Amino acid sequence: MILFDTSKETLGKIEFFASILEWLEFKIHYISRVSSDELAKGRLLIIGGKRYDRYSSDEIEIIVKHVQAGHRLLVLTDSDSVPFFDSINKILREAGIYPIPTKIRENERLEFATKNINKNHKVTIGVNELVFRNAGRFILAQKKAYPIDVLVRSEKIQQPPNAIISCVARMGNGRIMAISTWEILTLDLLSESDNALFLISSIYWLLDKSPPQDLLQRIERLLVRY
Fold this sequence. Notes:
The structure is a single chain. The protein is an alpha/beta fold. It is 28% helix and 23% strand. The protein has seven helices and eleven strands. It has helices at residues 8-23, 36-39, 57-68, 88-92, 187-190, 195-206, 215-224; strands spanning 2-5, 28-30, 44-48, 72-76, 97-100, 111-114, 130-133, 137-140, 148-153, 164-171, 174-179. It has a seven-stranded mixed sheet. A two-stranded antiparallel ribbon has the order 5-8. A hairpin with a 2-residue loop joins strand 10 (164-171) and strand 11 (174-179).
């Protein structure tokens, strides 16, 4: 079971991604609240599109303990909300990941493509280019107990250059993956470059599952319909 937590205003914008996962035979559950009982329903929690939406201290503690116990967390931040208007940064910093609100631009445009991708990680095998919009950046405080791998950076022609856009970390017995914009989940960006492959490969990696050999073909067939 994959658990989703998002704001009401962005729910309709990410439902298409959830439907892709269902088409790939994953079960989806939108959580109604953050509680130990609710999080126990699935192994992976996806937090995306939480705009100006804070977690309480108790909720943060529950999520962190949930991951440390061996569960998985995929966080897609909202650059307009970080760091003052949400509490996702309080969760990520437990793994040494700090969201920064500085938005990455190319020729003053907030939508950009990058090929500055770590090709040595299972998540990014076959991923050659990614397109982002309204992406912030991360700075890392490497901790020996929680190693962090950078997956994606901005390019030299973008501002700021070589900025971290996505990374993965271990926290206790669990895993965290962070992406600096939730908008990559929207229909228009999912169909850009290798975005869909990147996201779906992330799900398989987080859940310790091997993707089907024809995953790329399945994704292409699905996106052609839209």
